[in-house]
Amino acid sequence: MDDLDGLLHRMRGEPVDARLAALGDAVMAGLEARRERAAARRAVALAAALALGVGVVGGTLPAAPARAVALGLSDLAPSRLLAE
User: Fold this and answer.
1) Domain for residue 2, yes or no?
2) What is the pLDDT of residues 31-74, one digit of tens each?
3) CB–CB of 24/30 below 8 Å?
4) Is 16 exposed, middle or buried (0-12, 13-18, 19+ CB in 10 A)?
5) What single-letter DSSP state applies at residue 21?
6) How far is CA 7 from CA 1, 4, 11, 17, in A?
7) In which domain, by residue range, is 49 found?
């Protein structure tokens, strides 16, 4: 234990490494990047859940039957000319 106490006592007198001053900023930047990635994942998951819900609801609702709409075709329309 005396060796450890002596080592710690000698380290107390040495200057602090300059990289430690920027360590807090790097940690906070890393936390911010992690928070942004988590928010992006949540947004994608919400969009996927919404799309799935709209698809399920849209697929289960009864659709109205399709109806043909009479268009006022001219007598010069290609389909009328070819039928003659």
Assistant:
1) no
2) 999 999 999 999 999 999 999 999 999 888 887 787 766 666 66
3) no
4) exposed
5) T
6) 10, 5, 6, 17
7) 16-58
Contacts 24+ apart (CB under 8 A), 72-80: none
Angle at 13 between CA 12 and CA 17, to 5 degrees: 80
pTM of the model: 0.51
In a domain, 30, yes or no: yes
Structural domain count, the chain = 1
Amino acid at 34: R
pLDDT at 8 over 70: yes
Residue 69 lies in a domain: no
Tell me if 37 is assigned to some domain: yes
DSSP state of 37: H
3-class SS at 69?
coil
CA 56 – CA 50 distance, rounded (Å): 10
Which residue would you say has higher pLDDT here, 24 or 1?
24
